[in-house]
Amino acid sequence: METSFENKETLFTPKQVSKITGVESTLLLKWVNYFNIETQWTQEDQQGHRRYTKQNIEEILQLKHLIQEKKLNWDQAKTFFEGNEPEFIVDEGKTRIETKVEQILENQESQKDFIKNQEKFNQSLIEQLNAMTRLYQDTLNELAATKQEVISFKEEQKLLSSPSNDEWITRRRIEHILRSEARELWSQKPAEERMIKTGFLRKEEDKIKRDDFIQDYIDSKLAERFEEEMKRA
Question: What mean pLDDT do residues 19-39 have?
Fold first, then answer.
């Protein structure tokens, strides 16, 4: 839905929003329509040109985080964006365990072989169940962290004492650059520092450790980069 009314709040063009968020203009329009982001217009009755508020930009950055970093699809992101926690992760995990158990049982050549390998099978199953438990807990932690980020975005607007538009745009742009730098540095780390064991002979990227690394990098560099940028301005 889009609205149009007189407001002293600064509005941004699609081109400015694309530059601030790093989201292509065409994708930006698709997100606005799909996720029902309430933009504004330069004339009444949705006439003239579309304009974005700072709140719109925060919403778009939130969607970018959910889709491009948390790897949620659009339907899942929309569910979370509307304030609901999707249940698909738990159900999917249970299905994988049940399928694995069925495959192991079907592959037993005989009752004798099954009894002989029972101890090994039980150990493997316990490891997988423990791994799935950790994965489920990690997923809940990620969802909680993402929800906290959403709350932080809203609280930040209340706490900031109306910074100038140039400073606000500069800060968001620097945060975007630092996030990209941190992700690149993370990808260059040795595999043993980035991966975590999630099952029998199975490893996955430690997403919690990755997100903490990225946020720590941003927190440690933001103030210095911002000060340097403002001196050059």
Answer: 90
